[in-house]
Every structure is written in C-alpha cells, then in structure tokens.
C-alpha cells in the first residue's frame, strides 16, 4: 500500500534477514550477499493503484501532523464519503470489489501498472518510488525462496502474477511455475515478457527454462498442489472477513511454504490511507484494505500453519509486510 513519507524506520526479519541493498531491475534478481537490515516491502499486479495517494502531501506537510492536528484531520475525514465513490464504481461494472478490480486492471490500471512494473522512464516520482519498493519485494522473495535449496524442479504457484515480475525470475532459477491473475491484460503481458526473456535469442547451448503456465483466474478459482505458493500484494483487495478464507485457501494449495505480502494495518498507516481518500482520482479506482499482522497470523494458525520469517519493506510511497509460513 503506497502512502506517505516520514514512516518509522524499517525493521529486520526476526529470523533470517534477506535484504540486499542493491535493487535489481525487474526479472533480474540480485545474487549479492545480503546485509543484516531489511530496508524496504506491498503492492502487485492486483494491488490498488496507489501512485497518487499521497501526492498532495509532501514530507514536510506530514511531518508536522501530530497532536491536535491529527484530531482536526480525523474530523475532516469523518465528513468525506469515499465508500460512496466505491459503490458507484461497483454499480458501473455491475458487481462488487472483484468486478471493480477486474475492470480496472484490464483497462486504465493495466496501463498504469505496466509502466510502474516496467523499465520505462515515463513515470513520475511517486510511481518510480513504488517501482523501487516492488522491486525490493521481488528481490526479498527470491532470496527467501533460494535460501535453503535450489529452485530447480520446484513447483511454485504465483497467485496474482501481474506482468510476471516474480514468475520470470522463478523460471530462470529452474522452478516449474503456474502463474495466474484476474486480469487477462496482465496475463497476456506476462506471457509476452516471459517469451522475450526466457526463449528469445538463446544461443548459449543450455536448455531453455521451462515457460511458466499463465492463466486468467481469480484466487478463488485456483486449485492443485504446489511445493510453494506465493501471493504478493493481492490481499489488499480483500476485507479481513474474506481474507481469512483466502489465506486458508492458499494454504490448502501449498505443501511446504506459503509467502504472503500485505499492507499492514496500524493507526498511522490507516490514517494516511484515509487522507489519500480525500483526493479522489482515476488512480484510486479500487478499495484498498489494510491487514493487522496479528489477524494474518491468526488466520494461518487456524489452518495449521505458522510464520517462520517476517519483515517490513518500505520506501517513501510504498510499504508492506512480508511473511513466510510453513506447516506447524
């Protein structure tokens, strides 16, 4: 969830730290030795476009919010009606959150996030910062996945694959990847990029990586069994009442490991999210739900899983919690 600068300092993973200070380009995860500080992690292809949430507020403005200012801001927030805007959006596409998300990421959202996830220079400062945060998320996930063993032949479900930012590096490492997204436009772009990076112009004499299997599916439709399931920044579209069931569903697909990222719910982050809702715009076209880490952990425990590693990734306009869960 992209919000505002002047957040609290990033924290370290409680078990194995995985942050590398060198941020790679997409699909090109770094192999350098990690340091002992996790600097930056939310959102994905199926994450709400947050690139404009905090634009009206610079770091100086938000740095002075406190005490009575917070109370005054809360009073202003109480007079706004962002939920009404969401209801009108849902009515336009004839459905609820899922239909709004699908419509958005097949149209204006696809164009916006394709730029953010790509390498084009046609991005503003906030979008570039979100690109940096997302790149660090992918880097840290790849480090998590390769910490203990090679990915050669490991089956991985990339749930909410977007433009393939994680699926392609996984395939390069030898994983057998099944990747899906609710957006047909995102899936088509992911497959296009995968073919270009994995199959085109190979003349090194080595076997070509196995192409990921790309599918247009929502999370509810996913089935099968995989060694590892990864779902980055998709929970931002689910209220906690539905997120519990989705976490249980994803865990049922995983045999050994489940990796999730989500926008953490704290008083400060929640307040800044609501500040952003004061400024409606085309980029804020979907609901964005924050989740308390304790709620996510409780949902995992209910289905017999425990969190083994956890951390926070933040940049100025991007933040997320990253957790790795294993069977208890």
Give a verbal description of the structure.
With 328 residues, the protein is α/β, with parallel strands linked by helices. The protein is 38% helix and 15% strand. The chain has eleven helices and seven strands. It has helices at residues 59-63, 68-78, 82-93, 97-105, 108-117, 125-146, 167-172, 184-198, 240-253, 267-276, 293-302, and strands at 155-159, 176-181, 213-216, 226-232, 254-262, 305-314, 319-327. A seven-stranded mixed beta sheet has the order 3-2-1-4-5-7-6, sandwiched between helices. It is globular.
Topology of this structure?
Blueprint (H helix, E strand, L loop, with lengths): L58 H5 L4 H11 L3 H12 L3 H9 L2 H10 L7 H22 L8 E5 L7 H6 L3 E6 L2 H15 L14 E4 L9 E7 L7 H14 E9 L4 H10 L16 H10 L2 E10 L4 E9 L1
Parallel strand pairs: 1-2, 1-4, 2-3, 4-5
Antiparallel strand pairs: 5-7, 6-7
Helix pairs in contact: 9-11
List keywords for this structure.
328 residues, seven-stranded mixed β-sheet, 11 helices, 7 strands, disordered N terminus
Global structural class: alpha/beta
Give, in spatial order, the strands making up the sheet with the most strands: 3-2-1-4-5-7-6
C-alpha termini separation: 29 Å
Over the alpha carbons, how many angstroms does the gyration radius reach? 19 Å
Model regions low in confidence, pLDDT < 50 over at least 5 residues: 1-67, 75-82, 88-94
Q: What is the averaged pLDDT score?
A: 76
The largest sheet, given as strand count, sense and whether it forms a barrel, is: 7 strands, mixed
Number of helices: 11
- Which percent bin holds the helix content? 25-40%
Beta content comes to 15-25%
Element-by-element helix/strand order: HHHHHHEHEHEEHEHHEE
E-strand count: 7
Shape: globular
